[in-house]
Design brief:
Blueprint (H helix, E strand, L loop, with lengths): L1 E5 L8 H13 L3 E6 L1 H4 L8 E4 L9 H14 L5 E4 L14 E6 L3 H5 L10 H18 L1 E4 L33 E5 L8 H12 L4 E5 L7 H9 L4 E4 L3 H8 L4 E4 L5 H4 L4 H8 L4 E3 L3 H8 L7 E3 L5 H13 L1 H18 L2 H19 L18 E2 L8 H11 L1
Parallel strand pairs: 1-2, 1-4, 2-3, 4-5, 5-6, 7-8, 7-10, 8-9, 10-11, 11-12
Antiparallel strand pairs: 3-13
Helix pairs in contact: 1-14, 6-12, 10-13
Length: about 400
């Protein structure tokens, strides 16, 4: 199977897209062409996949990126067995001549618009209604994958869920220490940027460093830079997921201070699962799914819950963990066990790949015979496919024609 994977919004090394889904497809023996904003993000593409660069859609500047994406997808879709895309924006760039098309829905987009700083306030709710309309239309025309069970209520049909689980090591790289806490993931106001800066200043006085590993919204970057310069925290910016998790290992705790917004109310923060998988106690705001995972599992608690928008409570929780080494290690051990039993990605990876294979098999339409991607000389923004770049299905079709 030859899968064409596309995003113009996400970072090319997005954990769900690259480190989970694309890796799962490649490991299963399938060919992948990946359309993403490599140059703007300063990313060197994987050699095992064919990579096509497009401009990134950010803020209100999305038209040029959509035009470029539509041109690329129009050219590449006919040679693929499957088109898997990750942004609602790409609904407006889908070509008419395309294979089985799957929209992987990462978030509650209408709810997320309520917190997007680049969307004018008066337009946020009306635009959310427009997006709901797009979703209903897409449900009739496309296959859908959902990242959360909580997204099911937005749709009439029964769509498969591919949750944001993670690779859980057999044992954590290091036990939890006592001199630093980490935040892993994108940073925004709604994800607790102000609270983290205040936390960093207070924890610094107690000899504990806050490390922030992740990209940030434009409006948040000056705040993080200033805090970094005054040594209130250490902001690393974007770091590829596999390396970020190694950096987080051995921290006193992993923090998640999401605000009480519609977009987060019914979602499980992936970062919490990643903290637990790598043996970190968790300090989280009382997002319902996060609280249930951290404090209400039969295995026992994996960390502490603090009120929304309360940096002082978060500081007290961190210092409590620092004082109580036994509790710190028990939380870490319990969290790792929960992650290993319930959130190990390879289990989901097999189901994810199987679902895509079944959809392609159900379609049953012959794919136009043509050269393998990359053999006719790709443009400068593309990396040729790795050896064996023709999908297995297409090889069988050619063999049948020769016979």
């Amino acid at each position: 199977m030859h899968a064409l994977v596309a995003t113009i919004v996400h970072h090319p090394e997005d954990a769900r897209i690259l480190h989970r889904q694309i890796r799962a497809l490649v490991d299963a023996g399938h060919t992948v062409t990946y359309v993403a904003p490599f140059r703007e993000c300063g990313v060197t593409p994987w050699e095992r996949i064919r990579s096509v660069d497009v401009p990134r859609a950010k803020g209100r500047d999305r038209v040029s990126s959509l035009r470029a994406a539509r041109a690329v997808l129009t050219r590449l879709a006919p040679e693929a067995d499957l088109l898997l895309f990750h942004d609602p924006e790409l609904l407006m760039a889908l070509p008419a001549n395309r294979p089985v098309t799957v929209w992987d829905i990462h978030e509650d987009t209408p709810a997320a618009l309520l917190t997007k700083p680049w969307v004018p306030g008066p337009l946020r709710r009306p635009l959310g209604g427009v997006v709901r309309g797009f979703e209903r239309h897409a449900e009739r025309r496309l296959r859908l994958l959902l990242a959360e069970e909580g997204y099911r209520s937005r749709f009439r049909g029964d769509h498969p869920v591919v949750p944001n689980t993670t690779e859980v090591p057999r044992t954590p790289l290091r036990p939890p220490g006592d001199d630093r806490v980490v935040y892993l993931g994108h940073v925004s106001m709604a994800r607790g940027a102000h609270e983290m800066v205040r936390m960093g200043r207070r924890l610094r006085d107690h000899g504990v460093r806050l490390e922030v590993i992740g990209n940030a919204d434009t409006e948040v970057r000056p705040l993080l830079r200033e805090a970094h310069q005054e040594d209130a925290l250490h902001w690393y910016g974007f770091v590829p997921n596999d390396r970020a998790l190694r950096m987080a290992s051995g921290a006193l705790a992993g923090i998640s201070l999401l605000h009480d917004t519609d977009n987060y109310r019914h979602s499980l923060p992936t970062k919490i699962v990643e903290y637990m998988a790598h043996g970190l106690p968790v300090v989280t705001s009382p997002n319902p799914m996060a609280e249930a995972l951290v404090t209400r599992r039969p295995e026992g608690p994996a960390g502490l819950v603090v009120p929304f928008n309360d940096s002082e409570a978060a500081v007290r929780a961190v210092l409590e963990l620092r004082r109580d080494e036994r509790a710190r290690h028990e939380y870490a051990s319990t969290g790792h066990r929960i992650a290993q039993d319930s959130f190990h990605w390879p289990v989901q990876a097999r189901l994810f790949v199987k679902q895509l294979e079944e959809w392609v098999a159900e379609a049953g339409d012959p794919v136009p015979l043509r050269d393998a991607p990359g053999t006719s000389g790709p443009p400068p923004t593309e990396v040729p496919a790795f050896p064996g770049g023709v999908s297995r299905q297409r090889k069988r079709r050619r063999a049948a024609l020769r016979e």
